[in-house]
Amino acid sequence: xxxxxxxxxxVAVAGLLLQGGIFLRASSYARAQSQKTxxxxxxxxxxxxxxxxxxxxxxxxxxxDSLRRxxxxxxxxxxxxxxxxxxxxxxxxxxxxxNLTRVMxxxxxxxxxxxxxxxxxxxxxxxxRIYIDIQGARLALDAKEPIAVEDGLLHQVRIGQFSQDVVRxxxxxxxLKDHNVFxxxxxxxxIIDLRGEKALEALASMPQKKIATPAVKEKxxxxxxxxxxxxxxxxxxxxxxxxxxxxxxxxxxxDLVLAIAKKLAVKLNKELNIEVILTRKDDRYIxxxxxxxIANAEEADLFISLHMNAxxxxxxxxxxxxxxxxxxxxxxxxxxxxxxxxxxxNISDLQFILSDMTQNMKLDDSITLAHRxxxxxxxxxxxxxxxxxxxxxKKALFYVLVGARMPSVLVEMFFITNRVEGRAMSQEAxxxxxxxxxxxxxxxYNEGTMAMKTL
Length: 455
Hints:
The protein is an alpha/beta fold. 39% of the residues lie in helices and 24% in strands. It contains 11 helices and 17 strands.
């Protein structure tokens, strides 16, 4: 409706600007120019304009400058009306690791897209390439020059207005093992994951553009514990400008989950000999899509995102664990909207995105991990807090889990908005109890994994 109103306004303003018969001639001129935009004869536009102006001057005693100004104003209004229908591509950014590059294309609206992969052609000197045609899109940035990446995997990114309705993004690769493309809403961004061969010699002396926090590494125990899980990425939710939920007394979710994640990292490394990567080790903001990118780049065996729950009902309490999947459960969708910092509607929009995604979600393993953690949390925290409400294992559409190539879950560790649970989790003794329960759950999952490998 707004787009139609805008077009009507454009025509009305044009009518006011172009009076006395100029409107029809300018409209004809604009249509003629519009038909030329797809023609290689674009260079003749100025001579065509001059011819039209001379003709109009002979037929109507108006000066050429007035006619040209009217024509230019009408063309600008028509261009604005057309652009209002399109998703504007406003920025491109990328993250690089040793064997993974993530390219993020920022858009103003939902789009459809097509992905094509072109094999290298040594005879023509062409590298492997991927191109993505984004339909219903317009460029809103200067894309005359390629975006240089040069991280050993991706050479450069080229962007162009392929047609009036399509923006083409071309990725010139040095080499490529596989790729994955998906769309996230609010704000809309097209995510392109590119994976190459591990430990490239070309990267040995190259500084990494890695926006991630370093691994939390502790000294290995004298007698290593045999472990089926070698590396885990722990994700303390929120951070920086995003405090998460706020509890009684002003305590922030971002601070509690970070404290627990740090303690758990030490325990996992010391007692299970598991290397741990934290997506953040201090109070900083990290976009949701970057968190699973860290896990994918590190080739982690598990991804666990730690959060605290919240509710307008201050009596709400309990523990629950989530894995990524489509759901129609209203409560799960509301929770996902809060954790995703988006609207309830955009959670519905993600339904079709997930159904179209070609990703290795390790769904069965994620469900198993969720149940191991949930059982250990309820049992462990009950020993310290008495009657703990078991809210169970559920599925939801959390952006932070999208694109993970390993078993991945999100844990809601009590309600920060509940007076008893929120205050308990602000105390070190209860944080330590939570760490022990999480450690137990991961240990049980690990034992099950090792048992399956021996069958």
